[in-house]
């Protein structure tokens, strides 16, 4: 039984069909990659699953629940979480506070000040925050302001923020974009560790084929919104349609 499944998922922007009847599954504990040329619909697909966009048609099922069109903060309650780019970081707060706020927001569905009065809840939040900062290797920087972190560490912090809701499944859209080769390597190591240590199910969009072939269990290939291949790295590598799409055919 799959953890996540989309059935004929479709997203139109006016006359443009960005995601065209996409059906695919993600198994529990798997690292699933979505690849495809620029404009293939990868980000739109992720956004339709995580609730950032409302699909035009089709459905999304997570853990046997129909989550089609759920608001992102509701989807988080079911166990999915998306790592956002630096916009989600509060630069003047400490690294630890950034993760604690995310954990509080996840626990209560949205963020309200009276959560801080709930002492029992705060201890849980503190524990989750330490665990996730440890998981991404930022525990020693917990009291630093988030804005003072180097670029690669800010991206790690975003991952810790996404993990603060203790999700079963993590979505990452081009997590290594803009990173140096060293930062990219350590991020890829981190993704592998997250799968091993936290048992996370991961869906990753990434343009670097070397990374994809290293970490993905199965790869979904999109072109112009459509699924053109779906299989193991070996199956996808040998697929003629995939080779053609990447050569601009
Ligand atoms: P990818 O992430 O694979 O590069 P996207 O999902 O971002 O592709 O985009 C797929 C297609 O949908 C592109 O043609 C893009 O221009 C279009 N698109 C994406 N978002 C919007 C939007 N909010 N409004 C209109 N068109 C969009
Ligand atoms: Mg994209």
From TrEMBL:
GO cellular component terms listed in the entry, alphabetical order: plasma membrane
Protein family: Belongs to the ABC transporter superfamily.
Keywords assigned: Amino-acid transport, ATP-binding, Nucleotide-binding, Transport
Name recorded for this polypeptide: Probable branched-chain amino acid transport ATP-binding protein LivG
Domain annotation ABC transporter: ranges: 4-249
Pfam families for this protein: ABC_tran, BCA_ABC_TP_C
Gene Ontology BP, a term: D-alanine transmembrane transport
Family annotation (SUPFAM superfamilies): P-loop containing nucleoside triphosphate hydrolases
GO molecular function annotations of the record: ATP binding; ATP hydrolysis activity; L-isoleucine transmembrane transporter activity; L-phenylalanine transmembrane transporter activity; L-valine transmembrane transporter activity
Record's function text: Probable component of a branched-chain amino-acid transport system.
